[in-house]
Amino acid sequence: MLDSIHVGLTGLQAFQQGLRVIANNTTNLNTPGFKASTLQFSEMVGTGSPSGEATLGQGVDATSAHLDWRQGDFRETGNEFDLALEGEGLFVLRDAQGQTRYTRAGQFQLGTDGVLVNRVDASKVMGRAADGALGEISVAGLRTSAGEATRTVRFTGNLSSTVAEQTVGSVKVFDAAGAEHELEVRLTSLAPDNAGRWKLELLDGAALVGTSEIAFDDGQPTPATSRLSFTYAPAGGTAQALELDFSADVTSFASGNLSTLAMSSQDGFGPGALTKLAFDASGRLVATYTNGQTRKGAQLALGRFNASGALRDLGGGLFAEAGAGAWQLGVAGEAGFAGVRAGALETSNVDLSREFSDLVILQRGYQASSQIVATANDMLQELFGMKNK
After folding, report:
1. By its UniProt entry, which InterPro entries does this protein fall under (predicted)?
2. CA atoms of 330 and 33, how far apart (whole Å)
3. Which of 3, 36, 248, 365 is the most buried (most CB within 10 A)?
């Protein structure tokens, strides 16, 4: 009977631990990146009988809790530095002591020094360099975008073959310092002596930048004259090579006095200020500027464990390595690693219906174990009463 009481007590202790696990799961229902735990139960047996008789069970033992790594749902937050992982992997962090930590709760922000940190404990979010080395993710060098000189100006439209002269204005280009200049292209027909040929003058105000010729054959610019090269030296600026490109969508057909030839695009731009920072699906930091340009920064590092024993739960959504050589480092979208979803957080993967179902089972088990203890106690009392008589 004393053995029965011991067996019943193991049940009470095990079901009590199970209740604690369920309570922890349900109270973390809204914790970003939280992974539910399941308590493992195993039978306790004796050491065996010397005579070879069957060994009676000694009760139940509640072993360590097992983490459920199922994907949680996503909750949009609108914060560009809230990041969620779609698939396997964890974000890599480095705390103030230089220890590497991992998390699924991508609640990040930029620190005062421009370094990306975890909002929970201010540990630094790690990125991976091209050589595989880990380093902090910083916006240093990304706050401004320098201008770039125009190299090519493209034109489109029809140059009427029946006019004597055509001027294309508002040809905007940028110099090496990012300053904008408005040039002008003057086309003068060389007909009738040279039908289909035009003298082309590039002007900066009243100053002549350069002169060339463009020729049309059956209304199309000839390959040899469809791209014209000039050297443009803006006042007080550095000389730069400039190409006028008429090779696509430019024609010369009779259309009276109406010509539609105009500049369609150019590849230069002025300096710009930072307007937005965000991560793309590959976990790379992308900066957007007022000049319409974008630049890419560091790429988030991700960690992945190969066995459950490689993980140690530190609480607060943080994990550490429990065994050497059991982890792999990579980046989003690379060979089995998760993709990154910006502006969202992964919610807890706790399934309330399953938790409540397990709660009922634990409650019944606890009641049954307590009944065993109570019954064994009653039998002992009866035994002591018989002895007294």
Report:
1. Falgellar_hook_FlgE_sf, Flag_bb_rod_N, Flagellar_FlgE/F/G, Flg_bb/hook_C_dom, FlgE/F/G-like, LlgE_F_G-like_D1
2. 20
3. 36
